Amino acid sequence: MHRTRIKIRSWAQAAVTVASNAYLTGFKTGSIYTGVLKHGCVPSLNCYSCPSALFSCPIGAIQVTLAGAGGLDLTAVHTIGARMIAISTSLPLFVIGFLTLVGALIGRAACGWACPFGWFQELLNRVPSPKFVGPKFLNYLKYLVLIVFVLLLPAFWLDEFDGGEPAFCKYICPAGTLEGGLPLAWLQPALRSQLGKLFAWKASLLAIILILAVFFKRPFCRWVCPLGAFYGPFNQASLYKIEFDKSSCIECGACSRVCPVSLDVPREVDNSECLRCLECRDACPKKLLKISMRRH
After folding, report:
1. Which helix (H) or strand (E) holds 244?
2. Strands 240-244 and 289-293, how do they pair?
3. In whole angstroms, what is the distance from residue 16 CA to residue 118 CA?
4. Nearest by Cα to 120 from 179, 53, 205, 201
5. With 0-12 CB in 10 A as exposed, 13-18 as middle and 19+ as buried, what is 217?
6. Whole-prediction pTM value?
7. d(CA 216, CA 290)
8. Which residues 6+ apart lie within 8 Å of 210 measured at CB?
9. What is the pLDDT of residues 208-240, one digit of tens each?
10. Which helix (H) or strand (E) is 280 found in, with range?
11. DSSP string, 8-76
């Protein structure tokens, strides 16, 4: 049953990846799809600039809007509080609402079942190699990335034209480099001549993440991903939850060994790091974990 569950989830991740990146013409022409579907977002990271992407990335959409707010006429805005009000009214409320709805219903299950970059990291982790857990304190880094690089820098770090910088997409996002930067550089010869230090930095960061994924389970998701930071707190209040009968646990460790984010499942199941992948449930020999609906 456990192997069946892994296959089902892997197929689900593959299906979401293909469905959200079905504009194959983009790889033929080296262009980016800009049709009506790009006004909508997927519930996970999927780069807008990927030649085959049909939908927008929610983190990218939020950043671009915040960065655009940097171009507001601030002559009548004299305080930080007023600036925040001006920015908040221009946020793409449908994106925030969409992510909130997903989080309220299923928490981080979107990360475990529908994230192309998360799936790619899991595939890399299957490469035979020593496996490590990594320090727990790094889990908090993604909250800093969310606050600083996704929310604050795009709004307040202005260029010479008073426009903001989509800092996470521009300086960090390895999913964007893998799905957008590298394919476009390959498909557009003229673009390759313009690549410089920034592209080299992001390509190096991507390489580091991919190498780490061989030895650590989902390192980007656990330590860096701002979308995981957004969804994580919803695990404590979402409609869907996982229950665990701790009193009957025999501490065999089977559940923790299969966890894709290296949780100590008997003590950390369904916390803010849990992807709700259900592999722990199927690995448990006593069947002590189950899905339930939260009663508010």
Report:
1. strand 240-244
2. antiparallel
3. 12
4. 179
5. buried
6. 0.87
7. 27
8. 121, 124, 174
9. 999 999 999 999 999 999 999 999 999 999 999
10. helix 279-283
11. HHHHHHHHHHHHHT--THHHHHT----SGGGGSB-SS---TTSTT--SB-HHHHHHHHHHHHTTS--TT
